[in-house]
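for ur thesis appendix - PucR C-terminal helix-turn-helix domain-containing protein. copy paste whatever u need, i formatted it the way the template wanted (i think)
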Amino acid sequence: MPDVASLQQFEFFSNFTLYAGAKGIHRMISNVVILDHEGFDGNYTDFHEGDFVITNLLYAKDNPERILPSFSKLISIKVSAIAIKSIYYHELPKEVVELAEAHSLPIFFFDSVYIEDIILNIVDYLRSSEKNSYLENLVDTVIYTETPETALKQLLSHCCPDNRHYVSSLYLTNPSSKDKLSIQRTLNRKGLLGKQFIDSAADCFFLMYKKGVLMLYFSQDVQTSSEIMKKWRHILSVSNLSSGNYQIGVDDEMLPIRQIDIAIRRSIYTNRCCGQQGHPKAVYSSMHLRTLMLSLSENRYANAYLTDLCKEISSYDRQQNTRLMETLYAYAGCLFHIDKTAKKLTQHPNTIRYRLNKIKSILHCTNDFEFQMIVGLISETLN
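the 3d part is after this line
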C-alpha cells in the first residue's frame, strides 16, 4: 500500500502545501474519498481507515466551528490525510491545527488543480501499486522458492509478449536516494510502470522491485552481448533513465524465458557488485565469481556461518584494541596483495602479515587457499 509521501511523485502534488501533521506523511493510503454533506449530517459510515480525504469545506463555509468535530471524527476513523481546496478557507482554526498535530494527521491545502484529476490520479496509483505488489511477490516466489512453476507461468503471462523466447534483465537503483520515488516518478511520467514498452527496437517490461526498477527485455532470438547492450542503451534513453546517479546491473547473456529467475538474479547481484566496487554500471559477464559469492548472502546457513566468524574477529578487536576486521576487508579489496594492503592502511607490510596470521588463527584456517576463500566470502556477502 502506498503512503501519503509517495504522492509527491505526481505533478498535481506540486500544488499541495502541507499545513499540519507533517509527522504522519507516511500513513498508508487505501482509498480516496470526498468529504461533503457528511460535514452537515455527521454520517461518516462511508469513511474508512486509510482514506485520503478531499474537501473544499463547503459545509463550513460560514460556520468554521463545524470543522473541528468533523476532523475529530475523521481522526477517530484513522483516515490517512485531509486535502483542502483553497476556495472558502486558506487557513484553519488554531484548535484544528493543534488536533492534527497531536494525532499526526497530515492536512494539505491545494489550488489550481481539479479535485476530479486528483481522484483519478490516486485511484490509478492505488490500482497500479496493487498490481506492482502482486508482481513483486511473484518475482520473490520465482527467485526464492524451489518449485516456482505456477508463479513462473503467472509472471510470464503478465510480462512476456507472445513469440518471445529469450530474456535479459537489468536492475537499476539510485544509491543517493533512500527510497525509489525518484525512479518511480520518472517512470510514471512516461506511463511505463507495470506495462510492456514495445517499439520497433525493443520489448521491455518495467517493474518496481525492492528499492529499484527491474526491467525485462524479451527477444525472439538469442542476441550477442553487444546487441543486448545496444538494446538496453535504447531502452534507458527512451525511458529517461540514461542519465542520472543510477547504479545499474545488466545481465548481458540472454537466457530462455523459463530461466527468467536466473536472469533476474544475475542483474540484481551485478547491481550489488557495482555498489561494492564503486562503479555506476556493470555487466554480468565481467563479474565472474562475484555474483556466485553474493548469492550466498541469501543462504541462511552461509550467512549465519560467516557472521559468526566476523563476530569472533570483532570480539578480538574490541578486547585487544586491534584492527583486524578493517585489515580483512582491505586485504580482500586489494585482491590479497599484502603490499597494496599495507599502502592502503598506511602500515608496514610486516604489520599486515602479523594481522593476517592472527586472523588465520582466530578462524582456524589451515592453509592460504582456505583463508583467502573465507576472506573473499566475508567481503562479498557481508560487506
